[in-house]
Specification:
CATH superfamily of the largest domain: YVTN repeat-like/Quinoprotein amine dehydrogenase
Number of strands: 36
Strand order of the largest sheet: 22-23-24-25-29
Shape: globular
Mean pLDDT: 86
Structural class: mainly beta
Strand content: over 45%
Distance between the termini: 36 Å
Helix content: under 10%
CATH architecture of the largest domain: 7 Propeller
Low-confidence stretches: 1-13, 15-20, 386-395
Number of domains: 2
């Protein structure tokens, strides 16, 4: 959605919401014995919250699209299901300027593939109209938003002639008629994760690719004109795997790309954020996280170039199964605080959005009871509810500057050793023991420009980060 247009809509809906009251923080974990997950969330100006997702083995005999309505304190008002005898999945939801809802997802077809399904509903969950977008190949869409011309833009993937997938972007008008499509890819797999209308009226798309980048999966960002032509198409990554989960246009007009990036085989992924200018040139890239696997799935901008994020981690719970995490990070990759929401099973935060209550809503998957719908309200300090572990920045490892040109500094508590390796695993530097109360400055001026891995050994494990020599 056009940023100016969206900002006016958001301010308008918030100003005319119910009288300002103290926010009601909650953590809602709801579902049945079936497998359920919530994928996307939106909020109306009256404080009601809508979540879409999937119920496995649903009322219609297969996966059903789920739509849940909550009040502002997280109480379930109703749950409705939409589907048929084939598989149907609700993957994205948004509100419209006329006070309605749109859901994007998939629906099965007789050939065994999936078609893209678009549904427009009223606030009571009644279907106003729906459309299937079918081609001769398997396809899916996971992100949708309304555009400034009252139409819609969505993205996902479509199978190609190589037996893999391509990025797929579709622009439709207000009644669902296709205005243009854009398919981008080659011999490998490409997937689009998010698309937004920019303040200039173009579209910015992000996803993953492994056809033409630096090696493995890389981040792909594409700028598309309002009429569907590619303005530029860039890849960002290295010889390891990189996965992009989304992109946002910032208040300064630049873009923030985010997701997860692979580290050496002992650790799967770290969080990453990357600032990109309007021409597709990387300004800075930062990786951060703990000693186990971390992934960033959704982010919103805060004042002062800070970001509130959600995803999953097992770095902050004693290496147990994945937990939903909510955290604040600045544009240099320094984590301010992190909330680990502890529960049994595998838990993932899929989306975070700003709320009219001047706080934020997070939805995703709770892994207990085969998988449940999950929704919580939080603020910029991480207040939410009980059962949440707080990890403050006093336990963080500070590695800066990154990128660097000569020296790199490492600061933290109880550092036992520091090792620097290249991306092939060859050891280049090892320092042990560490003096100066855990602060260490390392001269790396002799290294060639490129990417390296720094491994910091602490009493609780090894922290692995990518660093870049310019």
């Amino acid at each position: 959605m056009n940023k100016i247009y969206f900002s006016f809509l958001f301010i308008f809906t918030c100003l005319f919401s119910k009288a300002q009251t103290a926010p009601c923080y909650f953590l809602k974990d709801t579902g049945t014995v079936n497998t359920e997950t919530s994928n996307s969330v939106t909020e109306f100006r009256d404080g009601t919250i809508y979540v879409t997702g999937v119920q496995g083995n649903g009322l219609h005999g297969n996966d059903d699209i789920a739509l849940l309505k909550f009040d502002s304190c997280g109480n379930v008002l109703w749950i409705k299901y939409y589907g048929d005898s084939l598989s149907n999945q609700g993957l994205g939801i948004n509100k419209t300027t006329d006070g309605k809802l749109v859901i994007i997802g998939t629906t099965g077809n007789a050939s065994g593939n999936n078609d893209i399904l678009f549904i427009k509903l009223d606030s009571s969950g009644n279907i106003l109209f729906q459309k299937k977008y079918a081609v001769a190949a398997n396809q899916s869409a996971k992100w949708i938003e309304q555009t400034s011309d009252k139409g819609f833009i969505f993205c996902g993937f479509v199978a190609d002639s190589y037996g893999s997938n391509d990025i797929y972007v579709v622009k439709i008008d207000s009644v669902g008629i296709v205005q243009w499509t854009q398919q981008v890819g080659s011999t490998g797999n490409e997937y689009a994760d998010a698309v937004h209308e920019t303040s200039a009226g173009n579209f910015i798309v992000t996803g993953d690719e492994n056809s033409y980048g630096a090696g493995g999966y890389d981040v792909e960002i594409i700028k598309i004109s309002k009429t569907g032509y590619i303005i530029w198409d860039k890849t960002f990554g290295d010889r390891l795997n990189n996965g992009c989960q989304g992109i946002i246009e910032l208040s300064n007009g630049k873009y923030l790309s985010y997701g997860e990036t692979e580290t050496p085989s002992s650790i799967i992924f770290d969080f990453f954020i990357e600032l990109v200018d309007t021409s597709g040139v990387s300004i800075s890239r930062h990786t951060f996280g703990g000693p186990a696997a971390d992934a960033l799935f959704s982010a919103v901008e805060l004042p002062g170039m800070e970001f509130l994020c959600t995803g999953y981690s097992r770095s902050y719970n004693g290496f147990q199964q994945y937990d939903v995490v909510i955290f604040k990070v600045d544009s240099s990759g320094q984590m301010k605080w992190l909330k680990d929401i502890v529960s049994p099973g595998i838990d993932i935060g899929y989306e975070i959005i700003p709320s009219c209550k001047r706080d934020y809503l997070v939805t995703g998957l709770f892994g207990d009871n085969n998988g449940n719908y999950f929704l919580t309200r939080t603020d910029t300090l991480g207040n939410t509810t009980v059962g949440v572990n707080t990890i403050s920045n006093k336990n963080e490892m500070w590695i800066y500057p990154n990128p660097f040109t000569k020296d790199i500094c490492v600061s933290g508590d109880q550092i036992k050793s520091i090792t620097i390796i290249d991306l092939l695993g060859s050891k280049l530097v090892q320092i042990s023991p560490i003096k100066n109360n855990g602060n260490c400055t390392i001269d790396l001026s002799y290294l060639l420009p490129g990417q390296y891995i720094i491994q910091v050994q602490t009493p609780t494990g090894t922290i692995n980060r990518k660093i870049t020599k310019e």
